[in-house]
Amino acid sequence: MAHPVRIGSVRAMSGGQHRSSQLGLTSRLTSGWQASGQPDGLETHLDRYGPLPEPGTGRHEALIDAVTRAGLTGRGGAGFPTGIKMRAVASRRGPAVMVANGMESEPASEKDKALLAHAPHLVLDGAVLAATAIGAGVVHVCLPRSREQLITTVRDAVAEREQAYQNRISIEVHDLPHQYVSSEETALAAWLNGGDARPTSVPPRPFERGVDQRPTLLDNVETLAHVALVARFGPAWYRQAGLADAPGTMLSTVSGAVTTPGVYEVEVGTPVGDVLAMSGAWPDSAHLLIGGYFGSWHDIADLARVPLAPAALRPIGAAPGAGVLVVLPPDACGLAETARVLAWLADQGAGQCGPCVFGLPAIADDFGQLASGRPKGPLLDRLDRRLWMVNGRGACRHPDGAVRLARSALTAFAADVKSHVSRRTCLAARHGQRRGSVLPIPRPAGQKVWR
Amino acid sequence: MKHHLAVNPIACTGHGICAEMLPELIGLDEWGYPIVAGRNVPPELGSLARRAVRLCPTLALRLEAANAERRVRQ
After folding, report:
1. How open is the CA angle A347-A349-A355, to the nearest 5 degrees?
2. Nearest by CB: B72 against A207, A352, A390
3. Domain boundaries of chain A, sorted by first residue
4. ipTM of the modeled complex
């Protein structure tokens, strides 16, 4: 399901100074994507963005300061302030380790893949600059083993840099098993330490003791691309796009009932309805999944005018996550979609924590009964109790994410819930043939591999 | 110092000894895994709580200082 890459253009390009003037407000990361569809080579990259700023020697505060003042937050899903994370690692003793997280295990997200496929050097710039700032001598780039082409692209980019620069910081590209929970930060650290790519219990968190027992900074690859821009053009430039409390741009993967699915770069805070309009959401669609499979379902009418930004979305129980938007086609059943995803999430656990191992399959089974209109016993009470019971009880956030998705479906599709349980009919299916899966479910690759 | 109980969910295999010893603060879910109360351990239950921690066969139960510093999360 390779989505074409598209360029968002909610606000027109604005003038700036220096090279930053070549970049529009909403074509910072995606500046070169239209040109060729090929990865930017180092020369093209430097021509587009300017030379790599001299990072200075040893640990230094300037970049951390700039990133903090730019207000950059993580683009991997949780949205934690990047500057605070950098400082937390930099302030610990001894050499640190830098990890670029390009795992993107969210099935409905394509943005990290698209970014790395087109602008690998921007990500590597950010990783090298961040590594220098925190006092790390090595960058580990973690990519999913299933994306062979992408691994080749990034390895080629690394080789090209080795020719061009006398690398003080070595970059190692790794291919990890592609399970849903393998992109979690402790799972990456565990794998890089020679173990399974499964989440570990915390503390210690990786910033305290991560790879090789050293303080470790893990950042999503898109976050690192933004770091490279902040380093070049400064925090004031960075803040020209986006909101005061959520500056910059973000990549968003839009799919489902839209005429032009793809990866869009938009200003943080663009109204959700504008992003949907840009991607040509079908006018008769009514529901939207925001934030991916740990995200939430909503009525599109409730979201249309809401800025795509954490603070604005929070009151309605939504979060941008990694920028995933999926529009539910009007003839699809939201409960059936959710049931399929929950069954997949139940299977995608690391198999370590009891409440997740037993709770998620039980919840998925309840949801299956709901979707098929065959409730056994007091289904809704049982489901409600189980959702409450499982929430927050894993080593990682896997069960919490599944609970969040399930709860939001029960609210957003309340009318369907009623008709599925009482009249045992599906409102969506009445309008025509019930369609196949809208939300992508990766096919399990037989035996699960963690190493 | 105030403490609360915490479970390492990876280590826990659901023996349920903790819930048997300390039903005031620990319940079991329908699969036999402990659900611990988030509140502080009251002084009169302190020695029972410490015993429950000692007797956990997988060392999954622990007492944590209540005001542990907030940790950086991704």
Report:
1. 105
2. A207
3. 18-237, 246-328, 334-430
4. 0.88
According to the 3-state scheme, what is the secondary structure of A46-85? HHHHCCCCCCCCCCCCHHHHHHHHHCCECCCCCCCEHHHH
**CA geometry: angle A269, A275, A276, nearest 5 deg:** 140
Tell me the C-alpha to C-alpha distance, in Å, between residue A114 and each of A34, A102, A253, A268, B62.
12, 11, 10, 19, 44
- Dig out the tokens for A212 from the structure: 């090789």
Mean pLDDT of A407-416: 96
Find the CB nearest A355 among B9, B71, B73: B9
Alpha-carbon distance B68 to B74, whole Å? Answer: 18
Is 3.10.20.600 the CATH number for A246-328?
A: yes
- Which listed CATH number (1.20.1440.230, 3.30.565.10, 2.60.40.2250, 1.10.3370.10) goes with A334-430? 1.20.1440.230
Task: Find the residue in A nearest to B6 (Cα).
Answer: A393
Report the alpha-carbon distance of residue A226 to residue A110 in Å, rounded. Answer: 17
| Per CATH, domain A18-237 is 3.40.1350.10 | no
CA nearest to B60 within chain A? A201
Cβ within 8 Å, pair B9-A88: no
**CB A29, CB A225: distance < 8 Å:** yes
- pTM for this model (two decimals): 0.92
A-chain residues near B33 (CB < 8 A): 354-355, 358, 393
The pLDDT, as a whole number, for residue B2 is 86
Residues of chain A numbered 350-369 and touching chain B (CB < 8 Å): 352-356, 358-359, 362
State yes or no: pLDDT of A434 exceeds 60.
no
Do residues B21 and B48 touch, judged by C-beta distance below 8 A? Answer: yes
**pLDDT digits 0-9 by tens, A304-338:** 999 999 999 999 999 999 999 999 999 899 999 99
- Partners of A306 in the beta sheet? none
